[in-house]
User: What shape does this take?
Amino acid sequence: MASSVEDIRVAVDLIVLTLRDDALNVLLVRRDDEPHRGAWALPGGFIEYEEDLEDAAYRVLSDEASLGSGAVHLEQVRTFGTPHRDPRGRVVSVAFMALGADLPDPERGEDVADARWWSVDDLTEIELAFDHADVLGCAVERARAKLEYTTLAVTFLPEEFTISQLRGVYESVWGTTLDAGNFHRKATRTDGFLLELDKHAAPTGGRPARLYGAGAGTALVPPLLRSGQ
Assistant: This one.
């Protein structure tokens, strides 16, 4: 007999991204329960009956990695619902991307065996639980694409930053090297992207770099394309 709709459970999975040592890092937890006990996975959990999806996402961040809601920019990526993606039954998962500037080492929650940051480039070394490799890949590509046409890059930075630091975000997330002069020109000429501050970074031997903050805009027109066009 076919399963009823009451048998379908809804979960949230979190792709938490930050920059560490000039590399894009993702937060993974080691599962302490079956299925996939001992395997690395994205933080996640089932939503409660009267719980909002975003509230569930923030709860998972707190329970599994001790990260507060104020530390990250949260946005929904997509929904994953392939049958048999979870051996416990029919599970539909809503994936959220959580981005933050210089996020701290996670404190392992009671529901997981371990929690740590992994460089996205190093994840070929391990096999993630469930379909989390696909979920992660989708979110990373979303972040890379959104850097082209939105101001999302500033979520990886402190409130005050230099153009060099901003360029470093693009280089780390995209995995490429950008021409410093071209990037400076495009970034500073894009309306609403940056707010020029009347202050400079501490000198490091050369001319002190101008500091900037996030502008009021959300879209980049024209976009900053990965192709350099």
